[in-house]
Amino acid sequence: MSIVAKALVFATEHHQHQHRKGTKIPYMVHLLNVCKLVAENNCSDELLASALLHDIVEDTDVTIGEVETVFGKQVAEIVRGATELDKLEKKAIEKEGSWQSRKEHTIHFLQHEATTDQLLVSGADKLDNLRSIAYDHKRIGEKLWSRFNASKEQQAWYYNAIANILMDKGKASELLPVMGREMIDLCENVF
Questions:
Q1: Cα separation of 20 and 146, whole Å?
Q2: Catalytic annotation present for 59
Q3: pLDDT in tens, 155-166
Q4: Residue 19 — φ and ψ, nearest 5°?
Q5: What are 19's strand-pairing partners?
Q6: Per residue in 134-150, pLDDT tens?
Q7: Ordered domains of the chain (ranges, CATH)
Q8: What pTM, to 2 d.p., does this model score?
Q9: Are 177 and 167 within 8 A, CB to CB?
Q10: Of 24, 118, 133, 162, which has the fewest CB atoms closer than 10 Å, so is most exposed?
């Protein structure tokens, strides 16, 4: 079995009872969307596997060590880059640290430390999240914001910051500014 097929099975097993926030859409749809976005960069199987696994540590009981054991160091490092710090450390209190501080850490990491592969997976993740927000905003309007832990204004700040990072990192991969431009357009329409 290829590493991509193995990651698909592993992700399906661990995310099988999860749904997108505020919907009945199976969570696997998001993981497949992120994988498709990353695949548009003619990438390695390890990067595709990482895209499928990018939320496995944040949203399940799987640890980064388990990801490394099953999928290898390269996949684990990419997944680590897409995982919020408090989830990596598996703190007892799930939401330790404010939403703002967690997002500031993510922004700092993507701007200053992330590899190209980590930027691609994180960028695809954030773009798919923003696409979902835009779709749901058209469907249900301002009620959308009640499902989040942060205000509409905070969400706007976060997604605009990510979009600008992707635009700035365009030399690393031609896909990054493409994702960044789409995020900027979505932000203008949603926020």
A1: 14
A2: yes
A3: 999 999 999 999
A4: -135, 160
A5: 26
A6: 999 999 999 999 999 89
A7: 3-190 (1.10.3210.10)
A8: 0.93
A9: yes
A10: 24
